[in-house]
Amino acid sequence: MPPAQGAGVGFLAVDSGGSGLRVVVGEVGRPVSVPLASGESVRTGPRGIDAGHFMEQLVPMVRALADEAGCAEWGTAVIGATGLATLGDGLREELPGALAREFGVRTVALVADAVSAYVGALGIRPGAVVAAGTGLIAIGTDLTGWRRADGWGHLLGDCGGGAWIGRAGLEAALRAYDGRDGGSGPLLACAEEQFGPLPGLPGKLYPRPDRPAVLASFAPRVAQCAPDDPVAAGILRAAARHMAESAAAVCPTTGEPRVALTGGLFRMGDPLLVPVREELAKRLPHAQLVAAAGDPLDGAVRIARDLAAGVLTLPADGVMVHVVGVAGRGDHF
Amino acid sequence: MPPAQGAGVGFLAVDSGGSGLRVVVGEVGRPVSVPLASGESVRTGPRGIDAGHFMEQLVPMVRALADEAGCAEWGTAVIGATGLATLGDGLREELPGALAREFGVRTVALVADAVSAYVGALGIRPGAVVAAGTGLIAIGTDLTGWRRADGWGHLLGDCGGGAWIGRAGLEAALRAYDGRDGGSGPLLACAEEQFGPLPGLPGKLYPRPDRPAVLASFAPRVAQCAPDDPVAAGILRAAARHMAESAAAVCPTTGEPRVALTGGLFRMGDPLLVPVREELAKRLPHAQLVAAAGDPLDGAVRIARDLAAGVLTLPADGVMVHVVGVAGRGDHF
């Protein structure tokens, strides 16, 4: 079957993260489809993110969207994926071929989730984005290359992220419990409300596989206490300082870069946002803080549109942005 | 067989920790035996520390020591054990009976390893002891009760311990790698020497079950860099401040308490000891810093001697110090 008319500029855009795949399809010059979500995160195996499991989730979602769109050929696919840098070997090797066989895709871009978050927030402009949820990473570009800072995980960094804030809050609760300096009575009360008597807390945290998420679950309590508790406010101030340090490490030092914040952590609102704005203004006076325009899936869509239209100006470095051409069904090699 | 003469005042003393059991036997008024070590840590199961596995290790060691000592009846046993407060249910229920059946023991004291460390370091005197290895706990007494501070593990506290120092050192290395504030070039060089290229570090740390030990393995590098690197020196200064905070939370506020440091972390020497001495002098000017007289096994021996001689003045609270009388073979109930 020959490719349907216009299929050369049709595209798939995918965001693959901890809560599963989200997918849209579209064509250049037209609005994208509604997004579909799998709700199940892609398994990782010995070769990292499991390309087979990825395709198992993707294929039925794309078929459903294709029926809606009246189109079954997609020339371009952009996948923004968590863990791509460290766990992406399987995806990089297997996904382009699988997408070509299944959908006739001829150009595939695998981008780190930090890159799709960046483009979703700022578009294709120089600047820096701080992406914060349970973890924290900063990414920046001058449009000739990418820089990243932090994102090392809860034991080595992710300074200022959700697990970092929650951990600091629990430490302050336990300091109050012990009668050590630096304790917070309000955080102690919150910790007992959330976790029960504190001597039981280690037993509720250490055996769990999702320790960073358990720590991050306490972060909203820190924000809740901050207006009246100087210890909680100090934790958020320190988090804000760490975010500004990471943003400063990746932001272009010349020109008029933009800076944006993205990710679930910023739903905390003013107790975190006010100090973050102040620390960014101190640390990056030449940068303009703007609201994030969209999320990582919006970023994948933008990259896909530009790639499909042949106008992508995003720096590709093989790791953060990995673009490959493949022999699709429509090509007669 | 009736008890051998003098067996009523014979004792066993045991230190049970991460590297296994260490055991000595003795009699009041005489030097103790050489210590024997099992080299294998006692398993934990659904009921905490496994009393059966504990006895499996203990029995042959005590028999070997008894042959040397020419004595097979022990009226008193003192067990200092890591994790007793949280994982000691099985030991508390099964060990006294097992020791009575096997050795004719009539009085058993189960003491937290922090208590045996305290008594080993300071004897039975009011004061505070900071015990630091991979983790960190402070314990203090006015001889009417016990206070403890920290010891919450590497995600919730253990502030200033080996994992804490190593983690802070690796964070400083990664800050330098990223170009963030607070980085240390010398620590970056040490981290690359120890762990290879740093993008691989998360993969070498997070999948391991012994993450705190991996973090603590970097602590000696921080001490090594401290004389010439202000970032490394700052980490050890902060560790010293945390130790003084924990000591202050447990030390009697009146009288002339003594303070001692014990545990493997202090083998770091001056780069850590100099700031610790300064911070303790600031925080606890009424206390006298003394050298630890002995280790946790020495503490278990001291408690056993006093208990066997009927002169133990250590506060018993059922948790930190749990003393029980049992019906041994020598009693005809």
UniProtKB/TrEMBL annotation, chains A, B:
- Where does the ATPase BadF/BadG/BcrA/BcrD type domain lie? 14-295
Task: Tell me where the signal peptide lies.
Answer: none
Which Gene3D superfamilies does this chain map to? Answer: 3.30.420.40
Gene Ontology terms, MF aspect: kinase activity
Q: What keywords would UniProt list here?
A: Kinase, Transferase
Q: Quick check: keyword Kinase in the entry?
A: yes
Pfam family, any one: BcrAD_BadFG
Q: Which PANTHER family match?
A: N-ACETYL-D-GLUCOSAMINE KINASE
Q: What is this protein called?
A: N-acetylglucosamine kinase
Classification from the root reads: Bacteria, Bacillati, Actinomycetota, Actinomycetes, Kitasatosporales
